[in-house]
Amino acid sequence: MEPGLDIFLTSVKDFCPRLTHVELAQLASKVLLKNLEKKDVFLHAGKVPKAIGFVAKGLVRSFYIDNNGDEITVDFYAEGDYATHYPAFITRTPGSYTIQCLEPTSMVCLSYEHIQWIYQQSADFEKYGRLVAEEILKRQQARIEGFIFQTAEERYLDFIEHHSSLFNRISISHLCSFLGMERQSLTRIRKKLATNSF
Fold first, then answer.
1. DSSP readout, 138-183?
2. d(Cα 186, Cα 171) in Å, to the nearest integer?
3. In this structure, what is the dihedral angle of CA atoms 141, 129, 175, 158, given to the nearest 10 degrees?
4. 15 class by beta-carbon count within 10 Å (0-12 exposed, 13-18 middle, 19+ buried)
5. In the sheet where 32-36 sits, what is the strand order?
6. 152-163 and 172-179 are packed helices; what angle lies between their axes, rounded to 10 degrees?
7. pTM of the shown model
8. Is the C or the N end of the chain the one with fewer CB within 10 Å?
9. Which tens digits make up the pLDDT trace of 35-81?
């Protein structure tokens, strides 16, 4: 079995321990494995997402281009995350974001049609779909509330706490864009935190 597929099926089994080997084999028969290079695009803005991608290995980011022509990073998806513009995926409408690889990435992809077919095979698959959707919703809500209730410094500290493994894998410009701050602001926050730690 391909390593990426094995990682994906283990993740599904963690969500739904009651799934049988036969059911997991059904699921495995419906996925597509994609190996993407750095800078490859998984989803183009303005296109209907064809699949949801489970990141087995690698790192991708979602972004949009603002009115000034700047790329604004919306999120990062590393190993174990599901990458797609979920509302566009489930409503079959064009997505607002581009999803691009920051590293060589292995993804396990499930099309909308195959997900719907899988849901009809077992209540446990429906449970899996619900739990994945809940995780995506919690992640999106935390992102929104970070901009409503947190200062830039608090967003940075939250990123350190929850995504420390990404620090050496993303550029400063992508991090600043994700946190909603200028590079100079991030430099000031880092200096302040470094001074306070002594």
1. HHHHHHHHHHHH--HHHHHHHHHHHHGGGTTTS-HHHHHHHHT--H
2. 13
3. 50
4. middle
5. 32-36, 105-111, 51-57, 82-83
6. 120
7. 0.90
8. C
9. 999 999 999 999 999 999 999 999 999 999 999 999 999 999 999 99
Contact 60, 100 (CB under 8 A): yes
> DSSP readout, 102-137?
SS-EEEEEEEHHHHHHHHHH-HHHHHHHHHHHHHHH
- Measured in residues, the chain has a length of 198
Question: Does the pLDDT value for residue 198 go beyond 60?
Answer: no
Separation CA 149–CA 133 (nearest Å): 24
Kindly state the tokens that stand for 36.
Answer: 């993407």
Q: Quick one: pLDDT band at residue 126, thresholds 50, 70, 90?
A: very high
Give the per-residue pLDDT at 3: 85
Three-state SS at 86: helix
How far apart CA 182 and CA 109 sit, in angstroms, is 35
What is the Cβ-side half-sphere exposure of residue 166, based on CA atoms within 13 angstroms? 23
Query: pLDDT averaged over the chain?
Result: 92
